[in-house]
UniProtKB/TrEMBL annotation:
This is Phosphoglycerate mutase. InterPro entries: His_Pase_superF_clade-1 (IPR013078), His_PPase_superfam (IPR029033), PG/BPGM_mutase_AS (IPR001345), Phosphoglycerate_Mutase (IPR051695). Keywords: Hydrolase. PROSITE patterns: PG_MUTASE (PS00175). GO terms for biological process: negative regulation of glycolytic process; regulation of pentose-phosphate shunt. The active site is at residues 8, 81. PANTHER family: FRUCTOSE-2,6-BISPHOSPHATASE TIGAR (PTHR46517). GO terms for molecular function: fructose-2,6-bisphosphate 2-phosphatase activity.
């Protein structure tokens, strides 16, 4: 079974470099266009099921990709972006300008990251990714040929970290997950392997 993970298209908060986390921000016009382009990139793949974060930007991206095809569409809370607590809605520039802020460690030294009030640890994010893969993906490897998972940047990084057993210190290693980038995994004999990471669907 092939697993296609896609990050959502652009939102106004992406454009303004604001921290989104679990804030429910919709796609902007550019984001919808990005999803249309990604749909063309994925057009030849017959998806047997779609799993999406409940957040609007991920749901919109998935629905643009599958269009009017009658494909089982599942919403799963475990696919939400990591929560940044009280920092959601704040400027990324502010976080990078003040090293004493907790979110600065999240980007620069993730192994020592302590989330702000109301936020989520990297371990908690990875645990729910592992739970989702173990419960919703691995048992279906002989039923599905191709599945689409529509989610978020840190969520997909966590999925990769779980699959390749990366320590938290390497959380941000690998390719950047741009808007509508696609990461491909394969589930075979109850094991999930990373095939290709962060394919730029917008440059073809």
């Amino acid at each position: 079974m092939k697993i296609y993970l896609i990050r959502h298209g652009e939102t106004d908060w992406n454009k303004k470099l604001k921290i989104q986390g679990q804030a429910d921000i919709p796609l902007n016009q550019t984001g919808r266009m990005q999803a249309e382009i990604a749909a063309k990139y994925l057009d030849g793949i017959q998806f047997d099921a779609v799993f999406s974060s409940p957040l609007l930007r991920a749901r919109e991206t998935a629905k643009i990709i599958i269009k009017d095809r009658k494909i089982p569409f599942y919403i799963d809370d475990r696919l939400k972006e990591i929560s940044y607590g009280i920092r959601e809605g704040q400027s990324l520039r502010l976080i990078h300008a003040f090293p004493f802020l907790r979110l600065h460690a999240y980007f620069k030294k993730p192994e020592s990251y302590i989330p702000p009030k109301g936020g989520e640890t990297i371990r908690e994010l990875k645990d729910r990714c592992r739970s989702f893969l173990d419960e919703r993906i691995v048992p279906m490897e002989e039923i599905y040929n191709n599945v689409l998972i529509s989610g978020h940047g840190a969520l997909i990084r966590a999925m990769i970290s779980v699959v390749v057993s990366l320590p938290d210190s390497y959380f941000w290693s690998g390719k950047e997950q741009g808007n509508c980038a696609v990461t491909i995994m394969e589930c075979k004999n109850k094991e999930i392997k990373l095939i290709e990471e962060a394919i730029d669907t917008q440059s073809n």
